[in-house]
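explain this:
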Amino acid sequence: MPNKPYGIICPLSKACEYLEPRWTIQILGELWGGSSRFNDIRRGLGHMSPALLSRRLREMEAMGLVDRVEDRAAGTVDYFRTAKAIALEPALDALAHWAQRNIEAEIAIGEPNVSTMMWGARRYVKVQELPPRRIVMRFHFGTVERGSDRYWLVTQPGSEVDLCTTDPGTEVDIYVEVTTVSMAAIMLGRSSIAREIDEGRLFLSGDPRLIRTIDRWFPKEDGHDIDGVLPLLPDRDRHAGRHAAAVRQ
């Protein structure tokens, strides 16, 4: 890679040289989560350009972090983590746990890309906890300024969860009215469904069974149960914090 070496005799600095280029860790995370096709990886990353992703995958393949597997008969290309990349899992887990415990929720959440967030949400829906039939969930984000503010997740037994940006044309089983921050906070384990409902940022309607069991099937990031995680502050506390900061300035 075209990085300038640190010039320090230290194992940690060498690890940084390997992993520091922008998007490397995020690409590994997408592969870790099950994506293997180029378009799926790019959609999961959101803001990464196709040209940069192509270059980074080539670099990671040269470094021995990624295997590129081409099926000429099917006309497909898949990318998989190598044993070297898989060996990074404990270190990346530890880094994620540190972030959950030490980075404030408001900073960790930032301004989420709704499309990317919903693409990731489909990965965490627990289909086995849903009734054994086709389920259609409509999510409406009232705080979106650009792009689509409505998304549909469609599940069926034995199939991957589909994400639709246009109405699939079938009856909706559950409606979810939510803010982007609320959705991100729930997925990251920085808040709970019950708390977001109490705060007035989440509203549910539709099939009573789905509403009653949403805690079992609603998507959550793997780090949601980490001890000591820093929660999302209530709106009133966030507003007070911003006011105090403005006064200090």
Remarks:
- The CA atoms of residues 62 and 196 lie 45 Å apart.
- Residues 11-87 form a domain with the Arc Repressor Mutant, subunit A fold (CATH 1.10.10.10).
- The chain has 13 helices and seven strands.
